[in-house]
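In the previous chapter we treated chains in isolation. Here, by contrast, the input contains two separate entities that must be folded as one system, with a combined length of 444 residues.
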Amino acid sequence: MLKIIKIALAKQIIQLFKKDITVELRQKATLNGILLYVLSTVFVAYLIFTRMEELSTWVALLWIVLLFASTNASVNSFRKEAGREFFYYYTLANPKAIILSKMLFNAVLQLVITALTFLLFNLLLGNPVENNNLFILVLFLGSLGISTVLSLSSAIASKTNNNSTLTAILSFPIMLPTLLTAIKASMLCGLGFAWEDCQAYIVTLGLLNIVIVALSYILFPYLWRS
Amino acid sequence: MRHWWKALAIILLLYTLIAGLLIPVPKQVILYESIRNLYFHVPMWFTMIFLFFMSVINSVKNLSSNNLTHDTKAKELVNAGIVFGVLGIITGSIWAKYTWGAWWVNDVKLNGSAITMLIYLAYVVLRGSLEDEQKRARISAVYNIFAFVLLLVFIGILPRVTDSLHPGNGGNPGFNNYDLDDNMKLVFYPAVLGWILLGWWIASIRIRISNLSQKLEA
């Protein structure tokens, strides 16, 4: 019985995820906006700095661009589920499938944004990072953490009247643990430290990701019901 | 005699104040007499965490029972906790000025306390932007639980992997090793209990006021 429920949940997640992707590819509103945002920010940075040799400024700029890009991307992630469609979804889907599929979608979107931003930084501003393999791992885990926190925050904010402001207010403080850990770890990788030295931070990042996903999974059904 | 714990709070805090300022303390370089701030600064954080923890328990109860009294409790416990958090920052800031030489330093625990304040101020803002009572109770409960667990991970793990100016971190000796001698323990533990009781007392008064004003409105 439990197995059947699990399979049903996985099926729903995949279907909802496919739906989100299809809608996104058809409208391209979010993705295009974010890509343009990233491109113009990095280009402005390029016009100001031309080449950036100093690691700490480079890392700070990268994470700031990522933070605001992901906030912009996630603000509207529950917009379609807020109006009349809400009742339709409510009768159709399991809330757990909804939050998991939404987190999956936001994570994929975020990873695309992150990869592009990293590429643009490499092209325009140079790359002062010493240990690139580990740096990419940190980028991956940090982006996942940011996008998952934003998923639940925007779900909470979508239940209120001032959606876009509240998403930022709610998510920034609870995102800071992930963000600070990611920045610390990326600084270490940038300076060329190996796995042994950044291990603690990377494990913490992974742990934070697991905690965020587990909490969202448990708490979202209560949000959905209200 | 159901108010015995309030009397205990008063006695313990009077004792903290008098004994904390009079009982001899170990002489430490840089710290000197400012070490007595330990009886005031550290219990503020314990009290804050205690109040926030009780608030989260009430949020969980609210989610499972849908009873609005739990929501009132959660709200007022957070309000009282914020007061203790602000006091913790102020006492810490004064202490930092006289030992580290600045009102605020870039230290993992200081950043943690600032983030804690931001999270709970966001909680207050979230409550302010929801009008329907049931909805507000439910949504703020979800945020309260989510934020508190992340906060625990943050202040529980990150200071342990990062260097800090605080005792017990990054090569600095902890108070437990030799500073906190028996004399200080004699004041410190009662002080912690006293402040926690005071925090609980303040929160319970606020809960009663809140309940009464809700009755008046209804």
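Residues 2-225 of chain A form one domain. The helical segments of chain A are 2-27, 29-49, 55-75, 85-92, 95-125, 132-157, 163-190, 195-225. Compare these points with the single-chain example from earlier in the chapter.
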